[in-house]
Amino acid sequence: MKLKPIHNLKNIQGQRVLVRVDFNVPLKDGKIIDDYRLQAALPTLEYLLSSGARLILLTHLGDPQGKAVPDLSLKPIANHLGGLLKRPVIFVKETVGYQADAAVNSLKDGEVLLLENLRFNQGEYQDDLKFAKRLAAYGNFYVNEAFSVCHRKQASISALRRLLPAYHGLQLSGEIKALDKILKPELPLVVVMGGAKISTKLPLIKKLKSSADKILVGGALANNFFKHLDWEVGKSLVDNDELSKLEIFFKNGKIDDKIILPLDVVVKNESGQAQVLPVKNIKKTDTVLDIGPETIRLFSNYIKEAQTIVWNGPMGYFEEHSYSFGTLNVAMAIAARSTGHAFGLVGGGETVAALQQTKMEEYVDFISTGGGAMLSYLGGEKMPGLD
Ligand code: ADP
Ligand code: MG
Q1: What pLDDT is recorded for position 369?
Q2: Phi, psi angle pair for 196, to nearest 5°
Q3: How far is the CA of 157 from the centre of ligand 1 (A)?
Q4: Environment class of residue 105 by beta-carbon count within 10 Å: exposed (0-12), middle (13-18) or buried (19+)?
Q5: What is the largest CA-CA distance in the chain?
Q6: Please, which residues have CB within 8 angstroms of residue 37's CB and are 6 or more apart in sequence?
Q7: Rounded to the nearest whole angstrom, what is the distance from the C-alpha of residue 80 to the centroid of ligand 1?
Q8: What pLDDT sits at residue 230?
Q9: Ligand 1 atom showing the smallest separation from residue 353 Cα
Q10: Which atom of ligand 1 is found nearest the CA of 349?
Q11: Do both 157 and 264 map to the same domain?
């Protein structure tokens, strides 16, 4: 995708720049538990501030459905951000309105204003042009630094960027450049897919299947393929409503040879014990919760040969120790092959959490914070914030 990075923004001394960030951070008792999303936006904010711009920050927090929910106010975020930027961050308790107007009008060069949660407004959800115009009136320029919501058709992402000269933040630009390396890969490309939510993953598998050499399927995702092949899956997690969508990966009852399914699995058996089994030996009373050792070896061999690797979705129920080895071994194989050998990209909330357990995240070339947006971008779906 063609980018318009913020370095193209010239002479912004004294100009008001609206920056759509993603400060959707986890909060507990009004305190931020993990501020990586704030940290990720700092280079863009600092760059704009050092150019003498006046910053007006827009973000959502949680999903309040167009109503003001006190627990989802951005006040604690303004305070925390002030600490990171080492300057006060002005906060107003509304996104648009008289108070916001006044705060915007009195904003000086190098000052930062955070407006209240975008999603307290129905207009945000409805991609409402009127709401977007009220926001646009606050700025001379618009910067999108919120890749993770670019797949949403919401006012601050979609309508707003057509109302002002629009630019891409540094974090967003980095994300797109990395994802474009997957879309135009050095071959062989190996795609590793797992996790639970099959509907969000199918477009990506479909799209990357033409360029990929192998698509390694693990996690609960694989159960659906087993079931489609009429194999016993016992009590395993299966998405019955989506099963028919797998048809495209089969010809005359045989699976596409690019798609590699597990050879063996770890089940929780009738007596509640973890047990390794070939996939054909799964019993009615078993629950498949991880890939087995033969599969780890098979997957690792493909990963070792790759020049480009993309991984989304854990190989099993890694939150429980007995069922974490498949995921952690795959994570380590990918980390070992990445940086210098192959280009390795890992994304997805739980997937990144699993990678972090290995302490090897620095060995992976790029960690996408995009989640759903990453899947949409790689799957070639509509991106209202980018298209
Ligand atoms: P991500 O957030 O990385 O995109 P998903 O949200 O799709 O990944 O899926 C992650 C979840 O899938 C994890 O919480 C994991 O426990 C679960 N999972 C993976 N494999 C299995 C399985 N075989 N049975 C049950 N849950 C599984
Ligand atoms: Mg998830």
Answers
A1: 83
A2: -115, -40
A3: 29
A4: exposed
A5: 71
A6: 21, 22, 23, 24, 25, 369
A7: 32
A8: 95
A9: 3
A10: 2
A11: no
User: Same domain, yes or no, for 204 and 160?
Assistant: no
Nearest CA to 130 among 165, 167, 152, 160? 160
Q: Show which residues are catalytic.
A: 37, 197, 349, 372
pLDDT at residue number 61 = 98
Same domain, 105 and 209: no
385 in a domain, yes or no? no
Cα 263 from Cα 278, distance rounded (Å): 6
> How much is the pLDDT for 214?
98
Q: Choose the residue to mutate in 317, 318, 322 for probing ligand 1, maximizing ligand atoms within 8 Å of C-beta.
A: 317
Are both 52 and 132 inside the same structural domain? yes
The residue from 168, 201, 221 where one domain ends is: 168
Domain total in the chain? 2
The verdict on 28 and 156 lying in the same domain is: yes
Q: What is the Å distance from ligand 1's center to 218 Cα? A: 10
Q: What is the pLDDT of residue 253?
A: 85
Q: What does the pLDDT look like over 70-85, one tens digit per residue?
A: 999 999 999 999 999 9
Q: Whose CA is nearest to atom 1 of ligand 1?
A: 348
Residue 25 has φ and ψ, to the nearest 5°, of -95, 155
The number of the ligand nearest the C-alpha atom of 200 reads 1
Contact 20, 135 (CB under 8 A): no
Angle at 79 between CA 95 and CA 114, to 5 degrees: 25
Residue 163 lies in domain: 4-168
SS3 40: helix
pTM reported for the whole predicted model: 0.93
- Distance, in Å, from the CA atom of 151 to the CA atom of 372, rounded to the nearest integer, reads 8
The helix (run of H) or strand (run of E) holding residue 308 is: strand 308-312
> Who lines ligand 1 at CB under 6 A?
194-197, 219-220, 237, 288-289, 312-314, 316-319, 348-351
**Mean pLDDT across the chain, nearest whole number?**
96
Name the stretches of the chain with pLDDT < 70: none
**Among candidate residues 168, 201, 236, the one where a domain is terminated:** 168
Residue 337: which CATH number? 3.40.50.1260
Q: Is residue 383 part of a domain?
A: no
